[in-house]
Structures are given as structure tokens and as C-alpha cells.
Amino acid sequence: MTALLPPSTNSYYDGSRYSAWFLLISGLSQALSGMIHSFLPDGGAGVIGGLDLTHGAERVFAMFAWAGATQLAHGIVAVAVGLWYRTLVPLLLVVGLLERILISWSGWIKHVPTNGHHPPEHYVSVISIPVILLFLWLAMRTKATTPDDVSKH
């Protein structure tokens, strides 16, 4: 089992524990979104996103399921890092930040909905950018090292 889940790296993490908890909660949220997109009959496209599904519904459902699969996988990794591999918290926060920037750019600049309706994810992504930046900053700050801390390594 250690080949799949190596020993924890948490004792080597010097960033804020709040950043690790933020990543854990973000991972759970992302996994939940992934399950919605993967397992709801319409993937949440109509019920949550308010999309008109009168034409090409099967294609929309397939795209939502595909996005849901990646969200679910990413969420599981974020939960594992938040719990056991905290040395990777800054890296996963950077990945999450990049994802939110790209989603925001796509939803608000490149592919603006012609009917003016934005799904909830567009709003969440824009709001998430400064929040992720805050927790990334906290994760990158190192605590003052004491002789007891050095002996842990």
C-alpha cells in the first residue's frame, strides 16, 4: 500500500495549516462538483447551469461528465495532499489558481454567453482567485524554526 500512498510529508511542511485545510475543503468541494457533473441525469447543465438543452443535449451531457471526471480526480488528489502530503500544498494551490484564472478568462472574456447568463461556476471562479492567492501566500510563508522543529526532520 505504501507504493500507492507513501508516508506522510506533513512534518516537513512549514506553511500555514489553514492553507492545507483550505485545500482539503476545496478538494471536497471539487469532488462534490465532479460527482454532480458525472452522475446527475443532465450533469447539472439544465438544473444548475440553466442551459437550454433542446438541441445537442447528449453532447452537453458528455462534456459535463468529462469535466466532472477531471474535477473528481483533482478533488481526490487535493484531499490527499491536504491530509497527508502538505509539502505539495503550494503546488496544488498554484494548479487551482491557474485553473480558476483560465475558467474566468474563458467565461467572462473569450466565450461570453450570448444570452448573458453565467453559470454559478463563472462567479465562483472569479471570487476564488483572490482567496486562493491568500492561501498560497500563507502556504509559502515559513514559520520560525526552533531547535525542536529541526529534530523532526
Radius of gyration: 18 Å
H-E string? HHHHH
Could you say which structural class the secondary elements and strand pairing correspond to?
A: mainly alpha
Low-confidence stretches: none
Task: Report, as a whole number of angstroms, the end-to-end distance.
Answer: 23 Å
Q: Hey, roughly how much beta strand do the residues contain?
A: under 5%
- Helical content band: 55-70%
Q: Biggest sheet, in brief?
A: none
Notes on the protein architecture:
The protein is mostly helical. It has five helices and no strands. It has helices spanning 17-39, 57-83, 89-110, 120-140, 147-152. Helix 1 (17-39) runs antiparallel to helix 4 (120-140). It is flat. The model has no long low-confidence stretch (mean pLDDT 88).
Short description:
The chain has 153 residues and is an all-alpha fold. 65% of the residues lie in helices and 0% in strands.
Write the layout of secondary structure elements.
Blueprint: H1 17-39, H2 57-83, H3 89-110, H4 120-140, H5 147-152
Keywords:
153 residues; mainly alpha; 5 helices; 0% strand
